[in-house]
Amino acid sequence: MDGQSEKAPLHAGERAELDRLRAEISALRLRSARRRPSARAVAAGALIVLGCLLAPLALTAVWVHTQLTDTERFAATMSPLIREPAVQQTITDRVTDEVFSRLDIAGLTERAVRALAERGLPEEIAGPLRGLAGPAASGVRGLVHDKVGELVASPAVAQLWDRAIRAGHEQLTAVLEGNSEAVVISGGQVRLDLAPFVAAGKQALAEAGLSAVNRLPDLHPTVPITDARTLERARSAYTLLDRLAAWLPWACLAFLASGTLLARDRRRAVVRAAGGVAAGMLALAVCVPIARAVLVGQVPTAAVPAVGIAYDLAAEFLRQGIRTVFAVALVIGFGTFLTGPSATAVALRTRLSRAAARIRAHLGRVPAGPAGRALRAHLTAVRASLIGLAVLVFVFLEQPSAAAVLVLAAVLVCCLGVVQVFAAPG
Asked: Which residues on neighbouring strands pair with residue 191, listed in sequence order?
């Protein structure tokens, strides 16, 4: 009897309870399996993280390579430097100090008065003349400063500067590569020779009537740019980034693409990759002003305005690149999220579909002719074609900007909306 009771079938209540317990066990096992990431998920995540980390470095490498190897880009960046008032003031003060220190107006005045006194000039006249040595020196200094300032601010010097930076572009590359003899290192500082400005200033002063400058020898005053350690670090960074610029962007894209293709949920992987790239751009944007503060803090006070302005001009292209990549990442991430199965995305798509239906009704029920039915039949292909066309337009833009990315995305959304309105209802 005991054996028969053990083999007796379960009644309905017991069967239901057994099924419920089995379902709970299966759910717990599935949840536990989901909590333990597989090797595939770990590999996909690692590739995406690596690609996101490489994105800021890749953009920096491309910026350095383009900025310092493209003559036209370099000239466009540095051409406005000589037109900045702070830079003009720095050059004027430095050239004036150098020229006036060699003229010694006070000494010339004193010797002239002494020579006149020896030849019979009355003391009541020689005394006041000696007192004019200081004002005379101050007046001449003012004249020299004004003339040099007018020269530095003139269009002729601006044109000379443009020619000089173009001709000196190769020399700058040689400096960063350690093959330059024009930029000297003295006393632990890197110095820039101002001899061309001194020569032009002497010519302008001679034409203004101050012939004494013709007796001056060739002068080579220098302006400190930075310390030697900074130059060595810049050379090392330039060499490394120049080598990386050729393949680092492609490696970054390869890591992101490989991680996305390897992931089980590719849509979510794309969203996360886009978010990681956007976060990397934000981090790089924060580093740009920090690097400026470090660089400016290592130069002499007199060179701070010029170095700061030069850095801002050079970094502007990097800032544009950061904004562009950030905008692209946001557009891709947000667009991919909207096509996903999340409740937010589904609700938003539903609202957009209802809005399209209301627009169709407001337009008087657009007739569902052959064109509308063909558009509905090939709706996915049409959408893909519009997205591909937008990508091609972005790729062939000469200088894509964040504004261009946002405008292009807005136009694409409008086109997709028009397609949705005029497609025949399914």
From this structure: 184, 224
Residue ranges covered by each domain of the chain: 2-36, 46-58+237-318, 68-230, 343-422
Query: CA distances (Å), 102 to each of 131, 195, 221, 292, in order?
Result: 21, 14, 12, 36
Please choose, from the candidates 233, 239, 223, 222, the residue with its C-alpha nearest in 3D space to the C-alpha of residue 295. Answer: 233
- The 10s digit of each residue's pLDDT in 68-127 is 777 777 777 777 777 778 777 777 877 777 776 666 665 666 666 566 556 665 655 555
Instruction: Please state the φ and ψ torsions of residue 56, each to the nearest 5 degrees.
Output: -60, -40
> What are 227's strand-pairing partners?
189
Ranges assigned E (strand) in 166-279: 184-186, 189-193, 222-227
**CA–CA separation, 78 vs 87, rounded Å?**
12
C-alpha to C-alpha distances, 136 to 142, 195, 212, nearest whole angstrom: 10, 27, 14
Q: What is the pLDDT of residue 258?
A: 92
Please check whether residue 300 is in contact with residue 224, taking contact to mean a CB–CB distance below 8 angstroms. yes
Quote the distance between the C-alpha of residue 423 and its chain's center.
Answer: 43
CA 284 to CA 400: how far, in whole Å? Answer: 19
Torsion of CA 388, 389, 393, 394, to 10 degrees: -30
Pair 224, 191: CB distance under 8 Å? yes
Highest mean pLDDT among 72-76, 80-84, 185-189, 247-251: 247-251
Question: 66, 67, 63, 77: which is closest to 321 by C-alpha?
Answer: 63
In contact, 307 and 225? CB cutoff 8 Å: yes
- Do the beta carbons of residue 314 and residue 291 sit within 8 Å? no
pLDDT at 426 over 60: no
Report which of 330, 329, 336, 321 is spatially closest to residue 387, judged by C-alpha positions.
Answer: 336
How many whole angstroms separate alpha carbon 382 and alpha carbon 142? Answer: 73
